[in-house]
Design a protein that fits this description.
The chain contains five helices and ten strands. With 203 residues, it is of the alpha+beta class. The radius of gyration is 18 Å and the shape is elongated.
Length: 203
């Protein structure tokens, strides 16, 4: 299920109606209907997922919720799997849970006057969209705070460079990649891997 706009994904339970869901999670009935192409008074199929625009869905009720875990390996790479809980900005137009949401949000939090525009499209179009409409540059040498981009897969993938390390590795973080949908993952990758990435810097 790929949300079409920012919001929270909710899995339908027995007895749910649009009105009861809207009341419980602080969303608007008409916006739920419009965002999910529903009809008025339509019955909701148990187990299906819908988008709650601007709703407030507790993390423990989100699809695929798991308790936080950290796994370390001998290479000192690690994966941190946690639901991302931070302050929300309505300026983030990316759909929650996907790599583009996290990359935009994390870059916003890092500050420095580098707030990405909306409407950047799929991850594999970010570099071209930013170069043409934003004071940024792209290159193959990473810097802490950069957006990294790969064009692998149909949609590509983006995340953030957390640090550039003395041994030539970099530590990156993302969402819907290392740790799965809706989770932030972090790992350290060698140059042989990150040499295939693009890095988008602010100017």
């Amino acid at each position: 299920y790929l949300p079409s706009r920012a919001g929270f994904v909710y899995k339908i339970k027995s007895g749910d109606t649009v009105e009861s869901i809207a009341g419980k999670y602080g969303a608007k009935s008409d916006e739920i209907i419009a965002a999910n192409n529903l009809e008025l008074n339509q019955s909701l199929a148990v187990g299906t997922s819908i988008l709650l625009p601007d709703g407030n869905l507790p993390e423990t009720e989100r699809p695929d919720y798991v308790a936080p875990r950290i796994t370390n390996s001998q290479s000192q790479s690690y994966t941190q799997s946690v639901y991302y809980r931070t302050y929300w900005t309505s300026a983030n137009q990316m759909p929650w849970g996907w790599c583009t949401w996290y990359a935009w949000q994390r870059r916003y939090e890092l500050g420095g006057g580098y707030v990405l525009p909306g409407g950047l499209g799929n991850a594999n179009t970010w570099d071209n969209a930013l170069i043409s409409s934003f004071p940024s540059s792209r290159g193959t040498n990473p810097q802490a705070g950069d957006v990294f981009q790969t064009d692998s897969g149909y949609y590509g993938h983006v995340g953030i460079v957390d640090s550039v390390n003395d041994d030539g590795t970099i530590t990156i973080s993302d969402m819907n990649g290392i740790a799965g949908w809706g989770h932030v993952g972090r790992k350290t990758v060698p140059q042989s891997v990150w040499s295939g990435y693009l890095f988008i810097h602010s100017r």
